[in-house]
Design goal:
Radius of gyration: 19 Å
Number of domains: 2
Number of strands: 11
CATH architecture of the largest domain: 3-Layer(aba) Sandwich
Low-confidence stretches: 123-128
Mean pLDDT: 85
CATH class of the largest domain: Alpha Beta
Structural class: alpha/beta
Helix content: 25-40%
Distance between the termini: 26 Å
């Protein structure tokens, strides 16, 4: 089991405090204080989760998060003193899995780390069939044993969202995935596709609310909600 965590924090006392609490919780934290050191470390060590401060010397957390998301889905919790709504939404748009504002309780951070890791690694018990099955070659989807008849765009949306349960994607991220040719479409196009996808899911399994709206941000796939 990978228990390694990366703490990127330029305040030594805070980094040490978080490290001590996380080590007591059974994790193996490594601390970095310069943003320029993060990507080389992640590419080599690949921690189970990253606690990433937003304001750092060398490179800021927004740029780092964006670059990490270009090659990895490692869970990222952004930590910052910025409390403005635009910063929170920007962090989530770039692929952060959670967001904590300073000042905070170290116990809260430990709880958030456990929750994000549990969400990203949770698996079904042996012998229990998966809720959702996708066949990319045939563009076929089976939900609780019932086949869904989806368009290519709907299939790509569901496949993309379900690949990382619990993670929130903004409309622009979803559009970039389903329209890689950069065609010009309304940002509400995603809402229309999601609406149709939910309707088809409800048609075969009314209680399977697996695609959730996150107000002001976007959508996520979360069968546990």
């Amino acid at each position: 089991m990978n228990n390694s965590l990366l703490i990127v924090e330029d305040e030594p006392k805070l980094a040490k405090l978080l490290s001590n609490y996380l080590r007591q919780a059974g994790y193996e934290p490594v601390c970095l204080e310069n943003g320029l050191d993060v990507l080389p470390h992640v590419r080599v060590e690949m921690p189970a989760l990253i606690l990433l401060d937003l304001m750092l010397p060398g490179r800021d957390g927004v740029d780092i998060c964006k670059d990490i998301r270009s090659f990895s889905t490692v869970p990222i919790i952004m930590v910052t003193a910025r409390i403005e709504e635009i910063d929170r939404l920007l962090g989530l748009e770039l692929g952060a899995d959670d967001y904590i504002c300073k000042p905070f309780s170290p116990r809260e951070v430990v709880a958030r780390v456990k929750a994000v890791l549990r969400r990203s690694t949770e698996q079904k018990p042996p012998g229990v069939p998966p809720l959702l099955q996708l066949d990319e070659d045939r563009l076929q989807v089976t939900l609780r044993g019932h086949e869904l008849e989806l368009t290519v765009v709907e299939f790509k949306l569901l496949e993309f969202l379900s690949a990382t349960p619990g993670r929130i994607y903004g409309r622009n991220q979803l559009m970039d995935h389903i329209y890689p040719d950069q065609r010009i479409v309304s940002d509400r196009t995603i809402d229309s596709h999601i609406k149709n996808l939910r309707k088809k899911i409800a048609g075969v399994s009314p209680d399977a609310e697996i695609i959730h709206s996150v107000y002001g941000v976007g959508y996520k796939y979360d069968p546990q909600s």
